[in-house]
Structure to design on (735 residues):
């Protein structure tokens, strides 16, 4: 079948408006009679609020209202469990709502005629606190005698505990010729999206409480808003303006509930825009983890046993810690067949900023450990690292650590092979080896190295969730098709999903993409499309639009005008963890990746430079190849920042790097000199035209591939990052 639109690098449908400044983001929105809001953060990592005096703020000229916990109808929210107060303070029906648990807990909101007035009035609010013990180390928080962060939930600070019990690890280690152990520490990471949290809320002409703020799942936001405000779902409309990046950081709510509360109570439009400092204190971060690993292998390079313990800092509230750690549990053995696995993956409440969804969703942390173990085993066994991976790479009949086979095409071998060849490996007599494998001679103060790593991750929601996505297609015209309207609530957070959906509709119906009109990111008159997360939207919303387009085209061909079809796509079923063994069928599909890295280190200054990254991905079908390359390059750079320079520093629960002047992210001067994207198209029959998700994959192997290359250069393993010059120089014994 000849494809006219699918597989073409069509310009993003919103690209011109974005680059010319015409696009309206939440912070750009203005309405007549609009008020401005400021939020008083706790500024304390752990304390009980004894009293709040808002009288001076309420009397300040230009102030319209001040609201506290007693003004919130149902003072709780949370995407997974409702363990967080909307506003902390006395007078709430929620047990424990008078406790602040991190510095970004929200205590009061001030609504005024201008932002400046709201800011000044906010500073007049007097809060009397009783400081409570601050627990910031998850390895201390996990102890039975540790102070309880959520006594209203229970005495233990453990919020998640996933177990894997596959085979017999004791027998596996007894049969192993080589055992490698390691302790790995992975840091927090700030999402650093370009657009900080912002929004506007108002009551529209139909009486709907409307909230316009960036997010990742309109219908989930609507549900949380309805719960906290004690309003029917049909009274609330969530609509996303253009979104300036998300990366998982907008899965959890930030300003939406308090904005809606103010607009509902005052019956006036209310707006807020967070400063960068407010954003960095107020939203969640990537989960820091300590991972202890012990892996055993036979002399001929077959991995026999793996035992791991993860201690993850969940921060003050659950957010998505349970789901993130579920992903870490699945991916902890990498894309390899290991017959004996024992693992305990533990999430812990602390008084740090909550840990949240972030691109890769637990897999980057787990893959870092797994690939470091693989590279160390290769070194100890004197087996080439690519060869060791090939000897253990998953096959369709193998089982994951959850004791069931990986669903969908298992293409890790093809991915490893394509990467290895491009990175300078070759196969001789059935054995993989690096060309000129002896370490290159380093000249003067510069050391060069080459590294290799691989990874895999699920596509779509997991563990028994009834994964689905809704779409509606309308074909309008008389004798000829004049326009096609695609309705989907799916969020485009910059990844280009709306362009993909437009391409799918245009391909199926047989019209130029210019005839496709997209109506998106809204709860009004739309079904649930699910979240822009889990690398799911190309498969899920893509399948929904494809099938709805096929059905509407059939109606059009039968001369039904206009031809209108709604369709909900349901993915194959999955099952949850067995609580004691972890056995389950957690996902319906997986995607695979591998990377090679070439680096150069200045051993005198500790400055690390990436010369080349080779990043290979099986995407099934590249619906828009230029967008695929954009996702790969963006993911590589974002992960490079995580590995090499982003250093989120806290002390006793207080954030010390709360600005982009102190928390450094990569600039044009820091990025790799070259990123070579290899796109494999090995179709998965589940996806539209065989397509798989991609967004998170480029992130997964970056930490181990860079550290592998660094080890190749200087012979030292780094089990912790970011690889700041100071850390590297300490490793070299120079400071």
């Amino acid at each position: 079948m000849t494809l006219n639109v699918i597989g073409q690098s069509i310009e993003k449908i919103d690209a011109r408006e974005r680059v010319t400044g015409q696009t309206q983001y939440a912070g750009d929105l203005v309405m007549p009679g609009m008020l401005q809001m400021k939020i008083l953060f706790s500024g304390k990592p752990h304390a009980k609020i004894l009293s709040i005096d808002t009288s001076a703020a309420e009397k300040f000229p230009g102030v319209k209202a001040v609201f506290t916990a007693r003004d919130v109808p149902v003072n709780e929210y949370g995407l997974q469990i409702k363990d967080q107060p909307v506003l902390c303070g006395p007078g709430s029906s929620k047990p424990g709502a008078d406790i602040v648990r991190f510095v970004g807990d929200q205590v009061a909101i001030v609504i005024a005629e201008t932002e400046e007035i709201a800011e000044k009035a906010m500073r007049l609010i007097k809060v009397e606190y009783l400081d409570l013990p601050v627990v910031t180390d998850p390895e201390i928080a996990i102890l039975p005698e540790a102070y309880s962060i959520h006594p209203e939930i229970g005495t233990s600070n453990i919020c998640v505990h996933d177990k894997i019990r596959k085979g017999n690890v004791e027998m596996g280690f007894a049969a192993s010729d080589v055992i490698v152990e390691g302790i790995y520490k992975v840091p927090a990471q700030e999402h650093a999206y370009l657009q900080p949290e912002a929004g506007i809320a108002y009551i529209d002409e139909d009486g709907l409480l409307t909230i316009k703020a960036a997010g990742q799942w309109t219908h989930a936001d609507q549900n949380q808003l309805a719960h906290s405000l004690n309003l029917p779902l049909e009274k609330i409309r969530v609509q996303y303006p253009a979104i300036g990046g998300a990366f998982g950081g907008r899965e959890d709510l930030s300003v939406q509930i308090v904005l809606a509360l103010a607009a509902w109570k005052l019956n006036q439009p209310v707006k807020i825009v967070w400063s960068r400092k407010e954003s960095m204190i107020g939203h969640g971060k990537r989960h820091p983890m300590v991972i202890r690993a012990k892996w055993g292998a036979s002399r001929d390079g077959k991995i026999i046993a793996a035992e791991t313990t993860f201690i993850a800092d969940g921060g003050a509230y659950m957010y998505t810690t349970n789901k993130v750690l579920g992903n870490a549990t699945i991916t902890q053995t990498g894309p390899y067949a290991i017959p004996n696995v024992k693992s305990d993956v533990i999430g812990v409440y602390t008084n740090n900023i909550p840990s949240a969804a972030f691109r890769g969703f637990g897999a980057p942390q787990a893959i870092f450990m797994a690939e470091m173990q693989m590279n160390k085993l290769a070194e100890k066994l004197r087996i080439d690292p690519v060869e060791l991976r090939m000897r253990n790479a998953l096959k369709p009949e193998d089982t994951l650590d959850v004791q069931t086979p990986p669903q969908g095409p298992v293409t890790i071998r093809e991915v490893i092979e394509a990467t290895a060849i491009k990175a300078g490996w070759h196969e001789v007599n059935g054995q993989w080896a690096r060309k000129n494998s002896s370490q290159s001679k380093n000249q003067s103060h510069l050391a060069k190295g080459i590294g290799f790593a691989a990874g895999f991750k699920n596509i779509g929601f997991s563990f028994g969730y009834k994964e689905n996505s809704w779409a509606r297609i309308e074909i309008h015209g008389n004798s000829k098709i004049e326009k096609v309207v695609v309705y989907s609530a799916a969020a485009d957070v910059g990844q280009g999903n709306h362009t993909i959906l437009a391409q799918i509709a245009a391909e199926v119906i047989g019209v130029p993409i210019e005839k496709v009109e997209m109506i998106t990111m809204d709860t009004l008159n739309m079904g649930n499309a699910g979240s822009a997360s889990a690398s799911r939207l190309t498969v899920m919303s893509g399948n929904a639009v494809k099938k709805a387009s096929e059905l509407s085209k059939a109606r059009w061909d039968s001369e039904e005008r206009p031809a209108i079809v709604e369709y909900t796509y349901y993915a194959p079923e999955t099952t949850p963890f067995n609580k004691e063994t972890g056995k389950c069928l957690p996902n319906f599909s997986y995607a695979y990746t591998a990377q090679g890295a070439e680096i150069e280190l200045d051993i005198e200054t500790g400055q690390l430079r990436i010369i080349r990254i080779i990043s290979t991905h099986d995407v099934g079908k590249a619906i828009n190849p230029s967008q695929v390359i954009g996702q790969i390059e963006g993911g590589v750079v974002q992960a490079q920042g995580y590995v090499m320079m982003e250093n989120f520093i806290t002390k006793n629960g207080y954030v010390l790097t709360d600005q982009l002047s102190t928390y450094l992210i990569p600039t044009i001067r820091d990025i790799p000199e070259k990123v070579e994207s290899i796109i494999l198209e090995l179709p998965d029959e589940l996806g539209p035209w065989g397509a798989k998700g991609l967004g998170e994959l480029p992130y997964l192997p970056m930490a181990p591939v860079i550290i592998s290359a660094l080890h190749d250069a200087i012979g030292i393993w780094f089990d912790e990052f970011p690889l700041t010059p100071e850390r590297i120089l300490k490793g070299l014994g120079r400071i």
Remarks:
- The mean pLDDT is 97.
